[in-house]
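Hi there,

I know you've been waiting on this one. I reran it after we fixed the sequence typo, so this is the corrected version. Both the input and the resulting structure follow.
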Amino acid sequence: MATAERPGLLLRIARELRDLGAALEALDEAAAASLGVSRNDVRALGIAARSSGLPAVAFARRLGLTSASITALIDRMEAKGLLERARDPDDRRCCRIHLTTEGRRRERELYGRLGEGLARWLSRRPAAECGAIAEFLTNARTLAAEARNRAARR
């Protein structure tokens, strides 16, 4: 790549990241409307899909919610048949959060095609390129979390 092309490419990447974020937010909004739940509830569905069996405390931490708020969220999602609590066999005071069969079906229905399309696209790329993409996304997520933390402190 010519040195002169680099600034334009970097600007394009920055724009694409912003547009990707907006597109994913729009997808989450549509998913929430489809399920009749809030955006936080949809985030909870995604966390449960990726990390089924998390203790409720860890689940709340990932969502940035208090214990009272996570209890209300889980109650709503249980009422919809999307999440369920299961007692921790090692600690009676703790419960673990799982997707129900219906929750897994709905999550796959809403997000499955996106994952399949990305997997098809990535399967045509060399492993080294996929590694670079994964590293870039990890770093972008870390930088976004740092920016969020700075904004929250203001």
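Quick highlight: The chain has a mean pLDDT of 92.

Best,
R. S.
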